[in-house]
Design brief:
- By secondary structure, the chain is of the alpha/beta class.
- The protein is built from five helices and eight strands.
- The longest helix is centred in the last third of the chain and has 14 residues.
- The protein is globular, with a radius of gyration of 17 Å.
């Protein structure tokens, strides 16, 4: 399966500050307003950047219509589109897709049909502002580049071999 269309929003990053944590999330949606797709058969994804004080549309992707037929080949292209995302929200997701998404560092989240994307974006803003839930904190931590100063922290605690 190939990507049919991709609209990518070019931004000057003036709306978000580099000092705050920002995440990228995706929503399985055909109408770009609601979660209305099963991950494996999703016709498209809407990708947003979210930070504590706002969010912005980054990208809209569109695939051809697919049946939920167990064909694993269709997942590769979709997962590649989501590579930089911490999560993908969808109506349903199969076990094989869950494994592949987690291996790519993307947390699959199942929500009720017709859940509004705007409501989920506002909830993520609140989480980033007030303190992320366990899954989101882990996802953010996994996206942070590893630095060598982690050993300095152990040494300052009196760690020894």
């Amino acid at each position: 399966m190939t990507l049919q269309r991709k609209l990518k929003i070019v931004s000057d990053d003036s709306t978000s500050t580099g000092a705050t944590t920002a995440i990228k999330v995706a929503f399985a949606s055909a109408d770009r307003k609601h979660i209305d797709q099963h991950f494996g058969a999703a016709e498209g994804f809407v990708l947003y950047k979210v930070w504590p004080t706002g969010y912005e549309l980054l990208e809209v992707t569109q695939f051809g219509r697919l049946d939920m037929d167990g064909n694993e080949d269709k997942l590769g292209t979709k997962i590649e589109v989501l590579r930089d995302c911490v999560a993908v929200y969808c109506q349903a997701v199969g076990a094989s897709a869950i494994g592949q998404l987690r291996a790519a560092g993307v947390h699959p989240i199942k929500v009720a049909p017709q859940t509004l994307i705007s409501g989920l974006l506002r909830e993520l803003q609140v989480e980033l502002r007030d303190g992320p839930s366990a899954w989101l904190a882990r996802a953010i931590e996994q996206r942070q580049p590893r630095t060598d100063d982690r050993f300095d922290a152990m040494e300052s605690e009196g760690w020894s071999e």
